[in-house]
Write a sequence for this structure.
């Protein structure tokens, strides 16, 4: 289930996810990504951030890093604290 404030937003996200899944293969969150995620959590904490609040964003960033691909997001501000460690791009 996708986190959303209401049913309409949830339905939109489910449709969007379906469209993305039709065109792209998901990258695995494996042991290497978990290690990178731990490194990013520690970095956020060192920089005064709240890694638990950013857990999903950090998992996404770690997966991108491990697979050597840019992280495409409309929410670059969500990653500002680690922007120097992730190849962030806005679509």
């Amino acid at each position: 289930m996708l986190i959303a404030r209401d049913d309409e937003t949830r339905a939109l996200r489910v449709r969007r996810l379906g469209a993305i899944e039709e065109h792209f293969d998901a990258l695995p969150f494996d042991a290497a990504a978990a290690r990178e995620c731990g490194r990013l959590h520690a970095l956020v904490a060192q920089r005064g951030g709240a890694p638990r609040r950013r857990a999903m964003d950090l998992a996404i960033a770690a997966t991108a890093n491990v697979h050597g691909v840019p992280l495409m997001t409309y929410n670059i501000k969500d990653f500002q604290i680690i922007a120097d460690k992730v190849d962030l791009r806005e679509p």
Summary: The mean pLDDT is 93.
